[in-house]
Amino acid sequence: MKRAFSVDELKQTAPRLAVERRAVRFQDVDAAGIVFYPRVLEYFSDAYMVALKERGIDLPGMIAGGAIKLPLVHAEADYLLPLRFGDAVEVAVLAPKLGDTSFTVGYRVTTAGGIAAVGQTVHVCIDGARFVPCPLPDDLRSALGAAAPDGGSGAAPR
């Protein structure tokens, strides 16, 4: 699969949909004392949910309603610096690249030491009844198409 975002694009300052601030929790680290690699994908997902909610998209309601679904079809992360228990991190959701029936969201995780990880997820809009690709709804396209003027409000660390 061709990357929608290059690693360099993900590392650069770019329009952001949202920013979530959090601390690396004890249960996030492995025996080596660094974040267990799939936790970074969870950080991406949590920040993505914040971005949708801040833009008025009720993802739980959308999923429960069943008319459309937005399954993840690809996820990747590049780990650039170790993240350790107690580190304060900022997870930025970058303005997505939109297609007709899919979109790619970029992410950047930073800490006081610099950029710790970057990644991207690809989501496909599907008809909930037939499970075939369908066009992105206008409200979702609008919500995803505009980056926050302040780069996202960000949630308090948890």
Question: Care to describe what's here?
Answer:
A hairpin with a 3-residue loop joins β4 and β5. With 158 residues, the chain is α+β, with helices and mostly antiparallel strands. The protein has helices spanning 7-11, 37-54, 59-65, 138-145; strands at 16-23, 68-69, 72-79, 88-98, 102-111, 114-124, 126-127.
TL;DR of this structure?
With 158 residues, this protein is an alpha+beta fold.
Give the helices and strands, then pairings.
Elements: H1 7-11, E1 16-23, H2 37-54, H3 59-65, E2 68-69, E3 72-79, E4 88-98, E5 102-111, E6 114-124, E7 126-127, H4 138-145
Keywords:
5-stranded antiparallel sheet; alpha+beta; 158 residues; single chain; two-stranded antiparallel sheet; globular; 7 strands; disordered C terminus; 33% strand; 4 helices
Total number of strands: 7
Characterize the largest beta sheet: strand count, sense, and whether it forms a barrel: 5 strands, antiparallel
Integer average pLDDT: 89
Bin the helical content: 10-25%
The general outline is globular
| Distance from first to last alpha carbon | 34 Å
The stretches of 5 or more residues where confidence is low (pLDDT under 50) are 149-158
| Count of helical stretches | 4
Order of helices and strands: HEHHEEEEEEH
Using only C-alpha atoms, the radius of gyration works out to 16 Å
Spatially, the strands of the biggest sheet line up as: 1-4-5-6-3
- Strand fraction band? 25-35%
Find the structural class using helix and strand composition: alpha+beta
